[in-house]
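Issue 218. Parser rejects a valid record. Input:
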Amino acid sequence: MTSTEHEMTHEELIGLPVAVPLETANRALGIGRTRGYDMAKRGAYPIRLMRHGRQYRVSRYDLHRHLGVTAPCDQQLAE
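Output the parser choked on:
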């Protein structure tokens, strides 16, 4: 697989649900699966994580904020 198969488009980022699994956040950040889980377990993940049982989740808000992504409605509010 090439790296472009893992990259997330702006439209995909905007369309994310309110909370996403760690693997989705890893994809958006360009982090591999193993490295992402290792960072999460060590408390070194670049974004605040939510823990639900054995699963990690990341809020869309935190992910967008970290990446500097703005939704069309956010741009309208800023004007």
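Fixed in the parser; the record now loads. The longest helix spans residues 33-42.
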